[in-house]
């Protein structure tokens, strides 16, 4: 396939490369040579201000991919096949799918002035997807499916690559254990605090765990091993290894043998990544130190990450990750609501709008996190199962990539999270067909 455009910009090249990866085995060629384009026998797309012939697929572009910098975009959404679209245009497709997809994938709106939530993050209420009620949909994938059909109608012999549904279960270990491996000072302090508040049942449970009479309520690791083996899944684990335990960073100290053993065990059999601490957002040297700590304990290079509390800001967070050698990031989602932050259920390379360039950082978006359902959306376990199934069905329909986030404490035996472990097991074993 060949595309004609009057100019080849980094933005245009980026989105064409993404479309190529999603739909074709071979890359789409872009040319500014009008004569070459007209003479070509390949299926061809004209992305310019005027059509040339009936043999081409014509899309009249809006200006976004030919601009530099970030400015307010006049976006008017309209209904198309029971979902939303924008950047309405002329030609063989009702809108500029290149520009609209670029806007969503790059998180263009997050570079504009916006409100922050209580944690200093981009508030999801700012987002176009939230305001226009398509946060629950992998809209870019849906558009691609419709564009694919339109291309088939224009070029019946055009071949597309086969796509498959994929699922990656991921886990954040913010607090690896509820009581174990926290050192005598934290354990004694916790015991005294429980007794002082009259929480005698909690105090007794802590003592039983410390005396090895009961299993730690956050210890779901053997259970998860069995579940993954049964379902033939390959999970990813993200470890918080903050040097100081303060604020939102409450995991076990990386100097404790219990955490070191846990990391070493998971690194031997699974893919693991760094869960950068809250503190590393303001003290950038900590990020490199935490990665080095994790590499030492794991005995392997660490190239995956997901931000703790999904604390991130564009472009600074991703630029920092690239600088320390992270190749794949799993933070693209909200820490305040479930859904598709970038409106896509596919991995994609991050485009840095501040530098107008495609980067080496590959983004793996998630659509569901247990903490969002429980703390933010106030869902019961059964309501969350229905939510999970809605995302599964939406992604399965477009043969996309589904990534979920769970925490070990939701899947252990803590009474606060009763029923969540069972919901997850039902989802993996009985509700979903992965092959």
Which tags fit this structure?
435 residues, alpha/beta, 3 domains, 14 helices, 15 strands, 13% strand
The CATH topology annotation of the largest domain reads as: TIM Barrel
How many helical stretches? 14
Q: Identify low-pLDDT runs.
A: none
Distance between the termini: 31 Å
What name goes with the CATH superfamily of the largest domain?
A: Glycoside hydrolase/deacetylase
CATH architecture of the largest domain: Alpha-Beta Barrel
Mean residue pLDDT: 95
Largest sheet: 5 strands, parallel
As a percent range, the share of helical residues equals 25-40%
Structural class: alpha/beta
- What's the Cα radius of gyration? 24 Å
With strands numbered from the N-terminus, the spatial order across the biggest sheet is: 9-8-7-15-14
- Mass-distribution shape: elongated
β-strand percent reads 5-15%
Number of strands: 15
How many domain units? Answer: 3
The CATH class of the largest domain turns out to be Alpha Beta
Order of helices and strands: EHEHEEEEHHHEHHHEHEHEHEEEEHHEH
Break the fold down into its secondary structure elements and pairings.
Elements lengths: L1 E3 L5 H14 L5 E3 L2 H6 L4 E3 L10 E2 L19 E3 L2 E3 L11 H9 L22 H4 L7 H16 L11 E8 L9 H14 L3 H11 L10 H11 L4 E4 L17 H13 L1 E4 L9 H15 L5 E2 L10 H8 L4 E2 L18 E5 L4 E7 L4 E2 H7 L4 H17 L3 E7 L12 H12 L4
Parallel strand pairs: 1-2, 1-3, 3-4, 7-8, 7-15, 8-9, 10-11, 11-13, 14-15
Antiparallel strand pairs: 5-6, 12-13
Helix pairs in contact: 1-3, 3-5, 6-7, 13-14
């Amino acid at each position: 396939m060949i595309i004609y455009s009057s100019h080849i910009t980094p933005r245009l090249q980026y989105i064409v490369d993404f479309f190529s990866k999603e739909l074709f085995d071979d890359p789409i060629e872009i040319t500014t040579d009008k004569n070459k384009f007209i003479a070509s026998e390949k299926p061809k797309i004209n992305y310019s201000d005027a059509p040339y012939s009936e043999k081409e697929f014509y899309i009249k572009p809006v200006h976004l991919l030919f601009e530099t910098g970030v400015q307010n975009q006049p976006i008017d959404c309209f209904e198309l096949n029971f979902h939303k679209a924008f950047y309405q245009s002329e030609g063989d497709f009702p809108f500029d799918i290149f520009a609209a997809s670029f806007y969503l994938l790059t998180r263009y709106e997050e570079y504009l002035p916006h409100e922050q939530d209580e944690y200093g993050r981009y508030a999801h209420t700012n987002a176009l997807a939230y305001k226009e009620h398509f946060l629950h949909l992998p809209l870019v994938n849906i558009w691609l499916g419709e564009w694919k059909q339109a291309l088939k109608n224009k070029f019946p012999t055009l071949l597309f690559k086969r796509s498959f549904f994929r699922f990656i279960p991921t886990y954040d270990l913010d607090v690896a254990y509820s009581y174990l491996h926290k050192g005598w000072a934290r354990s004694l302090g916790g015991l005294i605090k429980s007794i002082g508040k009259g929480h005698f049942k909690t105090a007794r449970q802590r003592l039983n765990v410390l005396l090895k009479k009961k299993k730690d309520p956050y210890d779901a690791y053997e259970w998860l091993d069995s579940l993954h083996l049964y379902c033939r899944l390959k999970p990813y684990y993200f470890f918080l290894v903050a040097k100081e335990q303060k604020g939102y960073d409450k995991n076990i100290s990386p100097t404790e043998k219990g955490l070191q053993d846990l990391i070493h065990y998971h690194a031997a059999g699974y893919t693991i990544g760094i869960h950068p601490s809250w503190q590393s957002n303001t003290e950038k040297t900590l990020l490199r130190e935490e990665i080095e700590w994790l590499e030492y304990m794991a005995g392997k290079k660490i190239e995956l990450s997901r931000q703790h509390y999904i604390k991130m800001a564009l472009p600074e967070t991703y630029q920092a990750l690239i600088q320390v050698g992270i190749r794949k990031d799993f933070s693209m989602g909200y820490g305040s609501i479930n859904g598709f932050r970038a409106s896509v259920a596919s991995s994609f390379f991050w485009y840095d709008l501040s530098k107008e360039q495609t980067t080496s950082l590959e983004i793996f978006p998630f659509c569901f996190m247990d903490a969002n359902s429980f703390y933010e959306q106030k869902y019961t376990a059964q309501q969350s199962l229905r939510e999970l199934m809605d995302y599964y069905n939406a992604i399965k329909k477009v043969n996309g990539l589904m990534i979920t986030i769970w925490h070990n404490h939701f899947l252990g035996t803590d009474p606060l999270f009763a029923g969540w472990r069972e919901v997850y097991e039902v989802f993996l074993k009985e509700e979903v067909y992965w092959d």
